[in-house]
């Protein structure tokens, strides 16, 4: 989004996480993808707002608190902290962390409710049907599947219970055509396209009005004017994206700057809520719709579905402790085409660390900086005239920024990284072809030019890879004396400063060696 001041803006959100559970790899994955995009946009000169947080109301959380033997507020305070710890532990750079139990959020939810009511899209009725607490979702009889013991289950496998209670309804059925028209005229609204097609066929099947209040428990935002009812947790939860930018104060600077959001990142399981219900609520309230919703896939563990009952939940902190934070960040975004399901395999993790990181980028920078250290009086050399080979490599590096913008705007992290690694491979081939070690005696000026070209290509790559591996790239850039103020994408065109005195270079990506059993 461009404002009148000309400054480009970017508002990105993660789903807010249920506080019934400890953070696992799935949570880390969604937030990581957003963190990378937020960092990318900041480095690209955008004023960025990156939001994450916790979803603390509803029956599922109330039940978990009951099970833990504490009141829901104490329970949510504790579990929400685990998610904050995850953001700190993974170096996530959110600008705000929202909790739906905050006063600002209650105010926003109630304001949105009143607006939907004023516009005539809410009516009182009675709900009779199936409800899955695990999914916090309503299901029709025809959607249910048969479980192993003949019991009825939600299509997600969650247990369902029969509910009969008075309920307010949202006139979702009035939005079937409008939504379809929106998907049609905004082809980028839902990504990836396979998921977009699924949503379109779901909506084409026709939409029924949606139950948006509950009366059989208390843990939620009271319905304005009738506190026998609390708001359906998904209406409450989705509103968080606007709460965080000041809604209902639509005149506020932050709302003006950042609403509508540029991207809601979600997992495939919650796309329907974001791509159908949420835009319908906003259309009904006559508020601007987010520009894009992207659904990523799910991780399995060594080929198996991840579940608590199988005991194969992957703890993101354990991964980080064993392999290193940047290594894990890189692996998650490089290993699996973003949008597809992916499998976590220890073997593949080690493979990526040793091949892409230690061998490719790690070795390149270590070789080049060591040669400069040994053969150029430990100073970044001054280059002479460039040959065609030099220019070809530099041009390949220069082409990366526009390519990455393109890939990252489509959330194709794997493709962006693949292209960066193509340049790393080209640089490694160039080292071998130019053989700077042999030039020391025969043509020391040419050796300096070759090493300078390489160091400058490494600088450009390190700047571009900062969003994915911030800490390692920081070290790589510091070793070459790149001013911390000169590491944004606008600085890529500046060349590396000759004459900077290097410390003895230290490898940034060690090989991972499996300990003997
Ligand atoms: N509270 C709702 C979201 C409300 S947003 C207005 C919710 N929370 S959740 O904690 O259950 O899930 C949050 C995210 O984690 C979802 O995007 C989900 O797809 C993601 N993942 C949960 N398990 C996952 C994997 N095994 N793999 C990848 N992501 C997964 O839903």
Gist of the model:
The protein is α/β, with parallel strands linked by helices. The chain contains 18 helices and 19 strands.
Low-confidence stretches: none
- State the end-to-end distance: 54 Å
The appropriate CATH architecture of the largest domain is: 3-Layer(aba) Sandwich
Q: What's the level 1 CATH class of the largest domain?
A: Alpha Beta
User: What's the mean pLDDT score?
Assistant: 95
Describe what this molecule looks like in 3D.
This protein is of the alpha/beta class and 517 residues long. It is 48% helix and 15% strand. It has helices at residues 25-43, 59-68, 72-89, 103-118, 176-185, 193-204, 233-243, 253-258, 271-285, 316-323, 325-335, 346-375, 388-398, 400-409, 413-434, 436-442, 444-465, 470-479, and strands at residues 9-13, 17-18, 47-55, 96-99, 122-132, 137-139, 145-146, 152-153, 161-170, 190-191, 210-211, 213-214, 222-223, 226-231, 263-267, 293-296, 299-301, 304-305, 342-344. Strand 7 (145-146) and strand 8 form a beta hairpin. Helix 2 crosses helix 3 (72-89), helix 5 runs antiparallel to helix 6 (193-204) and helix 13 packs antiparallel against helix 15. The longest helix is centred in the C-terminal third of the chain and has 30 residues, at 346-375. The protein starts with 8 loop residues before the first strand and ends in a 38-residue tail after the last helix. The chain binds 5'-O-[(L-methionyl)-sulphamoyl]adenosine. 5'-O-[(L-methionyl)-sulphamoyl]adenosine binds next to strand 2, helix 1, helix 7 and strand 15.
């Amino acid at each position: 989004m461009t404002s009148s001041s000309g400054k480009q803006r970017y508002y990105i959100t993660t789903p807010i996480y249920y506080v019934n559970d400890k953070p696992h790899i799935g949570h880390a994955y969604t937030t990581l993808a957003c963190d990378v995009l937020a960092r990318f946009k900041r480095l690209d000169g955008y004023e960025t707002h990156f939001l994450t947080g916790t979803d603390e109301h509803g029956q599922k959380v109330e039940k978990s608190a009951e099970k833990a033997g504490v009141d829901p507020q104490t329970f949510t305070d504790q579990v929400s902290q685990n998610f904050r710890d995850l953001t700190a532990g993974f170096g996530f750079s959110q600008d705000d962390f929202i909790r739906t139990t905050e006063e600002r959020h209650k105010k926003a939810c109630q304001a949105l409710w009143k607006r939907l009511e004023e516009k005539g899209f809410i009516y009182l009725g009675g709900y009779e049907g199936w409800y899955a607490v695990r999914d916090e979702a309503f299901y029709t009889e025809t959607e249910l599947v048969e479980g192993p013991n003949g019991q009825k289950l939600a299509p997600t496998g969650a247990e369902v219970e029969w509910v009969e209670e008075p309920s307010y309804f949202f006139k979702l059925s009035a939005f079937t055509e409008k939504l379809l028209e929106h998907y049609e005229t905004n082809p980028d609204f839902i990504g990836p396209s396979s998921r977009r097609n699924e949503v379109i066929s779901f909506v084409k099947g026709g939409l029924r009005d949606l139950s948006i209040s509950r009366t059989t428990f208390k843990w939620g935002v009271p319905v304005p004017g009738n506190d026998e009812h609390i708001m359906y947790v998904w209406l409450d939860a989705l509103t968080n994206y606007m709460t965080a930018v000041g809604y209902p104060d639509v005149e506020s600077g932050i709302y003006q700057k950042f609403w509508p959001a540029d991207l809601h990142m979600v997992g495939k399981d919650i796309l329907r809520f974001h791509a159908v219900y949420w835009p319908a609520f906003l259309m009904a309230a006559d508020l601007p719709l987010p520009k894009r919703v992207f659904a990523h896939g799910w991780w399995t563990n060594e080929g198996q579905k991840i579940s608590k009952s199988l005991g194969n939940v992957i703890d993101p902190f354990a991964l980080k402790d064993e392999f290193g934070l940047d290594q894990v960040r890189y692996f998650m975004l490089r290993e699996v085409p973003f949008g597809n399901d992916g499998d976590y395999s220890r073997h593949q993790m080690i493979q990526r660390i040793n091949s892409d990181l230690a061998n490719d980028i790690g070795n390149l920078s270590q070789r080049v900086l060591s040669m400069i250290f040994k053969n150029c009086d430990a100073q970044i050399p001054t280059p002479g005239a460039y040959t065609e080979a030099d220019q070809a490599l530099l041009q390949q590096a220069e082409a990366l920024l526009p390519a990455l913008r393109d890939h990252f705007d489509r959330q194709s992290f794997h493709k962006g990284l693949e292209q960066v690694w193509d340049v790393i491979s080209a640089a490694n081939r160039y080292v071998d072809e130019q053989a700077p070690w042999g030039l020391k005696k025969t043509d020391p000026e040419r050796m300096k030019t070759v090493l300078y070209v390489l160091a400058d290509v490494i600088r450009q790559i390190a700047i571009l890879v900062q969003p994915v591996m911030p800490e390692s790239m920081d070290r790589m850039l510091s070793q070459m004396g790149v001013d911390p103020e000169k590491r944004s994408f606008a600085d890529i065109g500046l060349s590396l400063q000759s004459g900077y005195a290097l410390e003895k270079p230290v490898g940034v990506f060690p090989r991972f060696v499996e300990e003997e059993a």
